[in-house]
Amino acid sequence: xxxxxxxxxxxxxxxxxxxxxxxxxxxxxxxxxxxxxxxxxxxxxxxxxxxxxxxxxxxxxxxxxxxxxxxxxxxxxxxxxxxxxxxxxxxxxxxxxxxxxxxxxxxxxxxxxxxxxxxxxxxxxxxxxxxxxxxxxxxxxxxxxxxxxxxxxxxxxxxxxxxxxxxxxxxxxxxxxxxxxxxxxxxxxxxxxxxxxxxxxxxxxxxxxxxxxxxxxxxxxxxxxxxxxxxxxxxxxxxxxxxxxxxxxxxxxxxxxxxxxxxxxxxxxxxxxxxxxxxxxxxxxxxxxxxxxxxxxxxxxxxxxxxxxxxxxxxxxxxxxxxxxxxxxxxxxxxxxxxxxxxxxxxxxxxxxxxxxxxxxxxx
Length: 364
Known about the structure:
By secondary structure, this protein is α/β, with parallel strands linked by helices. 60% of the residues lie in helices and 7% in strands. The chain has a 5-stranded parallel β-sheet, sandwiched between helices.
């Protein structure tokens, strides 16, 4: 059953009967603390705050109502819990209270001049909701609260049906990820949505990324979103498949710069190491220029860069990239203990200075 929680100060009793009627008409169970519907556990350590948090967590929807009074638990605890838990909620405010708020915001520079502490607190709450959090507040009058709430619940119901329909379509499309050739243009649009959805199962997201790569159907915005994904597995896969995900040739320098910036700001220290071969495979010249801005703090990244550049030795000389590559090789070397790869790196830099490859570097 749909469980809807009414949140607000004690004066929400003025709209409680209308709230109960609307929720009941929707086939739901109305919760309101004045009617004893707040979950609670009586013990030596019991608190109203903890009880309110538990109730918000169990409710399907929260209806926050501002009448005239300020309720600290409502705005300090219940709203916070609804936000951090992703709980759906609506905010309604008595029209004359909302008008008072607008007047005070316009005419009073210092809220401390308002002697009524309740009004001070309400103004701060409404400022936080509208200005800082950019939430929508729905005004109502006493006689029309029932109609206002009914419209809000109907809107949420319609949105839920649309999301359910999207979920069904995405589930159907996901079955074709292993056979990307079957995906239509509309299917590919849903595939892109699935790939970048941080709430989607990571296995499904990876399948979507592979399907996009197979069909060369990812735009630059989608690729950059994947490269900055909070799901490390998705991010790494996007880097690995970058040469097939990103199809523009010649490559755009701005796109490579975005990729490098993402790697520089990533918590995954190995992302730079994984990005280097992908960029070099896409466009050697643009990659050499972009990688000059890459943070090479990890020894693995320096070693891989030196090794891959050496594999491209003939192409580097043919494109006249010797000076730029020598500068990259200088960044790969440091004063730490010598190793085989560093020795090869120094030899490679010397060959570039002479302007001719060895017999072993016939091509990339």
